[in-house]
């Protein structure tokens, strides 16, 4: 059994990345799987980007984060939610950023520099002292967005009619990449002093039992399947 230094996971980014990648079994086969479909997935990037921002604009609690001036944007920022539209220059700027991010995921290389890049992507969404803007997105929105991005990518992959083996390997690889990204976000939100193993097995055990009961899992499973089919159907139209 390999020993992992729990404290070091929160102090050393490289050590944490090494552990997460090892735990998820992300390696050469996953990289090959992404490279095998990258050229076919790349034309779908604009569709994914548009879908993401249409989703973000459906809720005031997520749309409001695009009103403050974005770091690096040199134009005029909107002054209200009502003024902010999907064709606003600042949103076009943000869409370009998301497009570059998705293309980076498709192209790699998946090395230490790549890990620093996705860590930076996470960091700029939090209110850290070393960035100019004060945009600070609550983790609930980050987590929901990552889930939506993954569902949309899954829909895109399913629409390509790849052979089953290629499709399965690509789905697994992209799933790992996005969960690695999600961990980069989590490291800036999770406070180690409030996280203890005992919390999982203590007073919350009743809640966990209810959450994992068949009665709770059935509607969740139906919702996931329905959502995936809906995304797949939308991509079939393009």
Which topology of the largest domain does CATH recognise? Answer: Globin-like
How far is it from the N-terminal to the C-terminal residue, by CA?
Answer: 49 Å
The helix content, as a percent range, equals 55-70%
CATH superfamily of the largest domain: Globins
Please report which band the strand proportion falls in: under 5%, 5-15%, 15-25%, 25-35%, 35-45% or over 45%.
Answer: under 5%
Shape: globular
Q: Class of the largest domain, according to the CATH hierarchy? A: Mainly Alpha
Unreliable stretches, pLDDT < 50, 5 or more residues? Answer: 194-238
User: Total number of β-strand segments?
Assistant: 0
Structurally, the number of domains stands at 2
Helical/strand content category: mainly alpha
Number of continuous helical runs: 12
CATH architecture level-2 label of the largest domain: Orthogonal Bundle
How many whole angstroms does the radius of gyration measure? 19 Å
Mean pLDDT: 81
Please trace the helix and strand order, writing H or E for each element.
HHHHHHHHHHHH
Please outline the major beta sheet: none
């Amino acid at each position: 059994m390999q020993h992992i230094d729990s404290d070091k996971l929160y102090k050393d980014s490289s050590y944490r990345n090494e552990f997460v990648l090892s735990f998820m079994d992300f390696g050469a086969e996953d990289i090959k799987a992404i490279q095998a479909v990258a050229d076919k997935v790349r034309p779908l990037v604009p569709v994914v980007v548009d879908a993401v921002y249409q989703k973000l604009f459906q809720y005031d609690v997520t749309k409001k984060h695009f009103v403050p001036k974005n770091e690096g944007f040199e134009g005029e920022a909107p002054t209200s939610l009502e003024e902010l539209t999907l064709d606003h220059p600042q949103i076009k700027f943000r869409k370009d950023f998301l497009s570059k991010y998705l293309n980076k995921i498709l192209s790699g290389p998946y090395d230490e520099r790549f890990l620093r890049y996705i860590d930076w992507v996470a960091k700029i969404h939090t209110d850290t002292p070393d960035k100019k803007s004060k945009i600070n997105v609550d983790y609930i929105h980050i987590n929901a967005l990552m889930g939506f991005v993954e569902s949309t990518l899954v829909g895109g992959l399913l629409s390509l009619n790849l052979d089953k083996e290629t499709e399965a390997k690509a789905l697994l690889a992209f799933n790992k990449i996005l969960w690695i990204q999600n961990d980069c976000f989590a490291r800036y939100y999770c406070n180690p002093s409030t996280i203890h193993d005992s919390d999982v097995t203590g007073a919350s055990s009743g809640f966990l039992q209810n959450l994992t009961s068949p009665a709770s899992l059935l509607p969740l499973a139906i919702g996931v399947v329905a959502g995936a089919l809906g995304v797949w159907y939308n991509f079939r139209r393009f």
